[in-house]
Amino acid sequence: MTDSTVYRKGYVYIQESFAGIIEETDEGYRFTYDTDYVESPCAVAASLTLPLQKAPFFSTTLFPFFDGLIPEGWLLAVVSRNWKIDRNDRFGLLLSVCEDCIGDVRVRSEVAG
Predict the structure, then answer these.
(1) pTM attached to this predicted model
(2) CA nearest 94: which of 62, 61, 50, 57?
(3) Mean predicted lDDT score pLDDT of the chain
(4) Cα(20)–Cα(11) distance, rounded to whole angstroms?
(5) Which of these, 67, 56, 78, lies nearest to 101 by C-alpha position?
(6) Rg for the chain, CA atoms, rounded
(7) Which of 53, 85, 95, 100 is least buried, going by the fewest C-beta atoms within 10 A?
């Protein structure tokens, strides 16, 4: 999966530190921790299912941890309607609504300035 075409990417921040990149590819999804982040003594894993490591993680579906950041129920309906994002476009929703999530992890559609 290393030669996959990347369609969209998100920049993952944990406790305000840049932690890695999640990418939507033609073969599924790839999450890779930033090397500097992994080597930092303050680094924490995004989740138990995505432990700190230098090698990328691959999945044919959006990683459950990241999918769990997306709103559900009535809030998902509001987001989908107001931002005109198909509720089945889970990666699009992740990039659009998870920049300011509750908790330590945020996903931005561009690198923070």
Answers:
(1) 0.89
(2) 62
(3) 91
(4) 6
(5) 67
(6) 14
(7) 100
DSSP string, the chain: -TTPPEEEEEEEEETTEEEEEEEEETTEEEEEE-HHHHHSTT---SBTTB-S-SSPEEESS--HHHHTTS--HHHHHHHHHHHT--TT-HHHHHHHH-TT-SSSEEEESS---
**Angle CA(51)–CA(56)–CA(60) in degrees, nearest 5?**
100
Residue with tokens 């509750």: 102
Tell me the pairing of strands 17-25 and 6-14: antiparallel
Q: What is the pLDDT of residues 30-43, one digit of tens each?
A: 999 999 999 999 99
Block residue for tokens 């932690």: 19
State the amino acid at position 56 in one-letter form: P
Phi, psi for 23 (deg, rounded to 5): -130, 145
